[in-house]
Write a structure and sequence with these properties.
Length: about 80
């Protein structure tokens, strides 16, 4: 279950106060070498984003809700940079 509450009819979310992305070691991640390994690389990156709990933000473009508090907006900014 995602820590991000999302209204399915919109592209906005709210984060729980204790949300922190999971740290992931990327040493074993295959490097992108153009088209030759794109599919495998993209699959690995998607799994990394899911493990870090940021997939909805990075891949789906989910944005903070209009009523999001400043801290939530700051977390979004740090994750989307």
């Amino acid at each position: 279950m995602s820590p991000i509450s999302q209204n399915q009819s919109s592209r906005f979310f709210t984060l729980p106060k204790n949300f922190k992305p999971n740290p992931i070691k990327l040493e074993n991640l295959e490097r992108l070498n153009g088209q030759s390994n794109y599919e495998e690389w993209a699959s690995q990156i998607s799994m990394v984003f899911c493990a870090m709990r940021v997939y909805n933000i990075v891949m789906e473009g989910v944005q903070p809700a209009v009523f999001a508090i400043e801290e939530e907006c700051e977390v979004y900014e740090s994750l989307s940079d």
